[in-house]
């Protein structure tokens, strides 16, 4: 059985705080896209640490993705693919997509497991922003970077663009062995969760 480890709100707050100087210095985001639901709380915490005196808060846009195993036609799972579906996306016809053109965009999620979700998010956002850029006749490049709280040290199914990796625009606050991470926002009893975190926290 996969080991379960527990993280507290306090630990997550501090992971965001510790990551903020690098994000500010290297990524210089002027917009965040939080992948729901796990990316929402880290993005909101980060926003406080990314706030610069005299500058407005960095806006947060939300997208929702869900991931499920896709069975083969005959329902025999020889080599099932993993399919990502959009449960919430940015609206192309309104200002939302146009608003991304030329920005430094920080994609935020809680965990990079198989990387399928992050691959999908980056690929699809890049595609849609490029479409919007052409539509608007604009020339500014848009730059994506990624922040996750936890990266699992395992073979990844998904791939991120070479330039994003080579320019060090991927940051995981902590890299953990392959395990199941229990986040506080999933807890129905937060006191018990904190107790379990004290006993079985991320090492
Ligand atoms: P992916 O495999 O695409 O990297 O991750 C897909 C999604 O599965 C994540 O966004 C997250 O919602 C969920 N997930 C993967 N590993 C964990 C984990 O250890 N704990 C929790 N709570 N969710 C996870």
From TrEMBL:
Residues in Phosphoribosyltransferase domain copies: 10-127
Glycosyltransferase among keywords: yes
Highest taxon of source: Eukaryota
CDD domains: PRTases_typeI
One annotated GO biological process: XMP salvage
Key words, A-Z: Glycosyltransferase, Transferase
UniProt-recorded Gene Ontology molecular function terms: guanine phosphoribosyltransferase activity; hypoxanthine phosphoribosyltransferase activity; xanthine phosphoribosyltransferase activity
A cellular-component GO term for this protein: cytoplasm
InterPro entries: PRTase-like, PRTase_dom
Protein's name in the database: Phosphoribosyltransferase domain-containing protein
Lineage start: Eukaryota, Fungi, Dikarya, Ascomycota, Pezizomycotina
């Amino acid at each position: 059985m996969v080991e379960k480890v527990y993280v507290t709100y306090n630990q997550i707050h501090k992971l965001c705080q510790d990551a903020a100087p690098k994000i500010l210095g290297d990524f210089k985001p002027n917009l965040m896209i939080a992948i729901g639901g796990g990316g929402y709380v880290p993005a909101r915490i980060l926003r406080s640490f990314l706030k610069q005196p005299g500058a407005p808060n960095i806006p947060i846009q939300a997208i929702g993705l869900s991931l499920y195993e896709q069975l083969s036609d005959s329902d025999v799972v020889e080599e099932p693919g993993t399919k990502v579906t959009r449960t919430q996306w940015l609206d192309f016809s309104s200002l939302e997509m146009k608003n991304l053109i030329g920005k430094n965009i920080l994609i935020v999620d809680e965990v990079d497991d198989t990387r399928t979700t992050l691959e999908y998010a980056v690929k699809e956002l890049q595609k849609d922003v490029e479409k919007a850029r052409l539509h608007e006749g604009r020339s500014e490049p848009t730059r994506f970077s990624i922040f996750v709280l936890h990266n699992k040290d395992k073979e990844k199914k998904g791939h991120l663009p070479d330039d994003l990796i080579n320019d060090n625009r991927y940051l995981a606050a902590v890299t953990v062995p392959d395990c199941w991470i229990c986040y506080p926002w999933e807890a129905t009893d937060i006191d018990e969760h904190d107790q379990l975190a004290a006993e079985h926290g991320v090492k």
